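Colleagues,

For the teaching module next term, I've prepared a clean inverse folding example: a structure given as tokens, and then the sequence designed for it. I'd like students to try predicting residues themselves before seeing the answer, so please don't circulate the second half yet.
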């Protein structure tokens, strides 16, 4: 094991110190829960009958308590391509459990919305809070106290963070995350991006755009660009919560099925009654959280995780903030260029060495913690290998050097010597800037701003030619309390067109952009948000705004102290948004994770 980089050690020690009290309370909670885990022999026969009645061929095994009973928490639906394969998983997972004398039951289901489907639509205002709903649903599923371990079936944007947040409240149980893998690659990413920009300029028809999009998103499996869903899978590897190497194996393959089988067998082995007890709450500690952040920076992953990592950490009693992320970003090099940061997608990334290569190189450079309690049979070193098949037997082999220097490079010869994300701050608040997708000559933009309060008005101003100039576009009242902090993807094509026409263009918003934010410099997740009097609420058209990733500046020359904040323009009714009024009212800031559930639980 290589010695840790000084900065990694320092940040880790700070996180441990800041988390001391919260982590102690959390560990006491899961110890108490483990001690109170009911012996099913002592549970009311009426209770057990309800639990066993639908078990069919597993009923006798459950009645005899022959082995561990595994709870499956599934986020299956067949509208979301990444989760469509999960429809057949429960039957297969039950067969794999029977092979080792265990049983498995579907403990419950969670919602699984697709941000790709709701982009630019009203439903996107429910997206971030769906994470809290998923965490609550996971808690409901595991509240039956019938399980000795859990398998978490989820991949996409808010779903994996929500599953982890919920499962961590039952952290005395072992849990393994089971991905289903990415769809095969479709049309080239350059071709897709070009068609989107042609459509934004009115030079492509809607039919041509739809044909292009279907050429990219075309079959079951995760979307192949490196957005939040695939960043989730990266993090689960960095934290040791997958069977090693599971992240990017495509659905329906023999290797995918072998990894799923291994997940069932392994979760049965690491239960409280076995010889290798590995409760989830001990696997997810300060070092695991640091590793997730390091992986995010090294691969140029989704900016959504600047929100999700603090929220997941809080569920385990760990305090992690943007200062920690930014300090790590100064020393973690950008080792991967995956679309939209590069030309190849996650399939190309995996073929070039993928997560095995990333972890191998980070460990060798002392930039990741190896000494994690993982769900595998070793520490994180096992995750520096790649899985394969020897006949029908699952094996792991060394990854070796990068298979494509345009996709993956070692820390000593990176694409950038710092990470793909940085903190910017000033009199407009604190925000995240994803540098990995932006050309370095665009790191600094200083220009008069145009202030908008929704995406539609930006699109209208673009079509009217009002933005044909150097401009900082400010889109405010998009934070958690205002409207649930939707992603603002529809801003990228018109702003990219303006940039390509030679203008200096930037975006500043208290909303989100995610891993597909593209090549336009953007300060996102701005906190404090506009609602409630945040600085963005006091900006006016024409104020000069400076955004600089090099100096970390997010500021205006305007005298904001002398101004009143603009009133909240939101209409919260319709599309179910009124049901989330409580979530919005109690949400905390983006840097704390934008969660109402966590703030109300005192975490």
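(Answer key — instructors only)
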């Amino acid at each position: 094991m290589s010695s840790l980089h000084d900065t990694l050690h320092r940040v880790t020690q700070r996180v441990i110190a800041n988390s001391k009290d919260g982590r102690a309370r959390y560990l006491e909670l899961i110890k108490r829960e483990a001690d109170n885990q009911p012996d099913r022999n002592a549970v009311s026969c009426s209770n057990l009958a309800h639990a066993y009645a639908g078990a069919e061929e597993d009923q006798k095994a459950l009645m005899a308590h022959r082995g561990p009973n595994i709870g499956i928490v599934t986020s299956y639906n067949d509208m979301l391509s990444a989760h469509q394969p999960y429809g057949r998983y429960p039957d297969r997972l039950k067969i794999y459990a029977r092979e080792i004398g265990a049983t498995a039951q579907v403990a419950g289901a969670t919602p699984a919305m697709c941000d790709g489907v709701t982009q630019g639509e009203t439903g996107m205002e429910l997206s971030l809070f769906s994470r809290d709903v998923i965490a609550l649903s996971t808690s409901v599923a595991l509240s039956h106290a019938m399980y000795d371990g859990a398998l978490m079936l989820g991949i996409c944007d808010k779903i994996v963070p929500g599953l982890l947040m919920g499962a961590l409240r039952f952290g005395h149980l072992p849990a393994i995350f089971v991905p289903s893998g990415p769809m095969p690659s479709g049309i080239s990413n350059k071709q897709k991006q070009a068609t989107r920009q042609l459509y934004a300029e009115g030079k492509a028809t809607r039919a041509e755009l739809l044909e292009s999009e279907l050429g990219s998103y075309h079959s079951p499996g995760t979307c192949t660009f490196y957005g939040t869903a695939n960043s989730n899978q990266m993090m689960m590897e960095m934290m040791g919560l997958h069977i090693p190497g599971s992240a990017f194996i495509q659905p329906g393959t023999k290797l995918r099925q072998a990894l799923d089988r291994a997940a069932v067998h392994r979760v049965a082995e690491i239960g409280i009654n076995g010889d290798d007890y590995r409760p989830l709450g001990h696997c997810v500690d300060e070092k695991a959280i640091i590793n997730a952040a390091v992986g995010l920076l090294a691969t140029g992953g989704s900016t959504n995780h600047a929100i999700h990592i603090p929220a997941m950490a809080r569920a385990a009693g760990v305090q992690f903030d943007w200062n920690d992320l930014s300090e790590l970003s100064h020393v973690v090099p950008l080792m991967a260029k995956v679309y939209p940061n590069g030309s190849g997608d996650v399939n190309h990334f995996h073929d070039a060495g993928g997560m095995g290569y990333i972890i191998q190189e980070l460990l060798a450079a002392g930039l990741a913690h190896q000494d994690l309690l993982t769900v595998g049979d070793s520490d994180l070193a096992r995750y520096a290998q790649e899985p394969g098949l020897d006949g029908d037997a699952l094996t792991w082999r060394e990854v070796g050097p990068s298979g494509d220097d345009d996709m993956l490079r070692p820390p000593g010869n990176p694409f950038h010597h710092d990470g793909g994300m940085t903190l910017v701050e000033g009199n407009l608040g604190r925000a995240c800037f994803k540098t990995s997708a932006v050309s370095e000559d665009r790191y600094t933009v200083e220009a008069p701003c145009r202030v908008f309060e929704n995406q539609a008005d930006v699109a209208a101003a673009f079509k009217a030619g009002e933005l044909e100039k150097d401009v900082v576009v400010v889109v405010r009242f998009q934070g958690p309390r205002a409207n649930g902090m939707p992603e603002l993807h529809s801003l990228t094509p018109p702003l990219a067109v303006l940039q390509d026409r030679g203008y200096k263009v930037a975006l500043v918003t208290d909303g989100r952009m995610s891993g597909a934010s593209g090549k336009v410099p953007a300060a996102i997740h701005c906190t404090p948000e506009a609602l409630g009097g945040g600085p963005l609420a006091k900006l006016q058209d024409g104020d000069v705004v400076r955004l600089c990733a090099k100096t970390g500046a997010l500021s205006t020359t305007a005298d904001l102290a002398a101004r009143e904040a603009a009133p909240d323009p939101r209409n919260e009714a319709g599309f179910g948004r009124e049901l989330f009024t409580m979530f919005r009212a109690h949400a905390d800031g983006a840097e704390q994770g934008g969660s109402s559930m966590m703030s109300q639980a005192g975490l």
